[in-house]
Amino acid sequence: LRIGLRKNVFISGIFNRGFTSETVSKLDGKVALITGAASGIGKATAAKFISNGAKVVIADIQRQLGRDTAAELGPNATFIPCDVTKESDVSDAVDFTISTHDKLDIMYNNAGIACNTPPSIVDLDLAVFDRVMDINVRGVMAGIKHASRVMIPRRTGCILCTGSITGIMAGLAQHTYTVSKSTVIAIVSSAAAELCQYGIRINCISPFAIPTPMVMNEMNQIYSGLNDARLREIVYNAGALHGANCEPEDIANAAVYLASDDAKYISGHNLVVDGGFTRFKSLGFPAPDQVA
Ligand code: NAD
Prior knowledge:
By secondary structure, this protein is α/β, with parallel strands linked by helices. The chain contains nine helices and seven strands. The chain has helices at residues 2-19, 40-51, 63-73, 87-101, 126-151, 175-195, 213-222, 228-237, 248-259, and strands at residues 31-35, 55-60, 77-81, 106-109, 157-162, 200-207, 270-273.
């Protein structure tokens, strides 16, 4: 009986190992460039891409953190300083990827910032609006432009962009961030219309709120005086799907899927990763005076 049991465990072990998603390298031999990958969603995606067999160039404005992240992720990660508001930086990051790895298969335009501007449009700070659009929109445009420059001659490639649920459901964030993210979704549709003739796929991923440094910084300003654990709890409790929290790894898994051959016929799509939040009336974030 003991031998029989061991044999079963052994056989099921082999069977499982062959079929679990963690052991299947969905991006074997692929080369990816990810903006804003020193932290948060970009970093989690870089790690997931590497564990799926890809080489990743991390492009970020935070030099020290970018270098530390690349060192943490190991020899298949490289860092290049890049400010996505500077077209020459984005162009250089693409050229650096080609000169280091001979090709660019996946461009993920993920860098972005939030803004805690006053809620009323009457008080809109247009300088802040310009700054956010510069990073969240113009930076994405620059990434698509320069990725396309090197992908079109190869007649293949995959481009991803980070949108947000705030881009599809108004009233969740301030006007500036909302406008920037709905524009990213529109850019993806527009670019897909041209790039499909070259066999290049472009898709958007729109996450629900995740307590990354960007969001924690904003939460600290909105709910001042609360500690990080309580702020994380507020973010998680705002989700609609019980029994799960939205994590950077959920976005990374969506990115692996869209970048892989599993999604070979998906382009111009906005993959919403929100546990259903935007599909029905949900509670969302409490007003600051309603929490302790
Ligand atoms: P994060 O702050 O952890 O990461 C953002 C990264 O972008 C940072 O490493 C930052 O240095 C980099 N960055 C900022 N400005 C840059 C610039 N000009 N050039 C290059 N890099 C720059 O935050 P995150 O939550 O991981 O954000 C990643 C993306 O996800 C953003 O586009 C954000 O708008 C989007 N998003 C986040 C959430 C969320 O709840 N965390 C939800 C929806 C969408």
